[in-house]
Amino acid sequence: MKTILKPTRVLVALGVMLTLAGCGKASQTDQANQPVVAQYAKKKITQQDFYQALKAEPSAKQVLANLLIYGSMKDAYGKKIDEAKVTAAYKSYQARYGDQFADYLEENGYTKKTFKQTLRLNYLSEAALKAQIKPTTAQLKDAWKTYQPKITVQHILTTSEDTAKTVIAQLQQGADFAKLAQQYSVDNTTASNGGKMAAFDSTDKNVDSTFKDAAYKLKDGEFTTTPVKTTSGYEVIQMIKHPAKGTFKASKAALTASLYQKWEASTTVMKNVISQVLKDENVKIKDKDLQSALNAYKGTTTSGTATTK
């Protein structure tokens, strides 16, 4: 899914931020009653000591911003998303990486919990966007100019750029794509089938946007001659079927989905969406040292339309 923000990479630290006592400086009496986090020799580090040290870190404001954004989104739109889709998306990653899933999480700074929260935030962001902004006919007609229909491809997912280059070199020498997929691809869901994927269009949120951009440039039988870097690794893609474009009327629903996908990928649009959610949720930061944590989201709120940049 698409990822507009990746706040949950730091959510592993948010539990600490949430449970640390109060804001500001504690009195001596309060200090004496604070739970002890750690100690050395005869010295004790209390929760308040720990909190003061944490909030002085450069990342503290970002951690707090991520906490507030995720919490506000979930509070406002949590009931409007299908948790089954979050679970299905999570399981698809598990299936894709198989025994290497734990390595994938670790390499990208996730735990199982924070990775699932990241996937959930994608759906929450989508719900917020659709609630705030509706496409106009003019925008749909403009999107039609570049709209692409469903295509069918086969791919080889590798964990390193060098491996992807090796695959491409063999393809250029006439090697069979399906056999190379079985040999090299780490996508357990497609490798045994020669790397063939289910047909998708430009609006499909289960396919990486960079992957789609590269795939749509291919004609039938063509493959990518340089590794395609995606959130999953390094891809080699070959086009199986790239059909002709249909009609505007028949493609209106897909065009609407395509517009939403573009807006989700727009930093400007999504900052405005988040800003509106924070405003609606009446978010306030009471610790004066952290009050600037959400400054990046104090801009213009949404007004029913959007443009991408």
TrEMBL record:
It catalyses: [protein]-peptidylproline (omega=180) = [protein]-peptidylproline (omega=0). Residues 148-241 form the PpiC domain. Its main location: membrane. Its EC number is 5.2.1.8. It is a lipid-anchor. Plays a major role in protein secretion by helping the post-translocational extracellular folding of several secreted proteins. NCBIfam families: PRK04405.1 (NF003356). PANTHER family: FOLDASE PROTEIN PRSA, PEPTIDYLPROLYL ISOMERASE. This is Foldase protein PrsA. It comes from Lacticaseibacillus suilingensis. The gene is prsA.
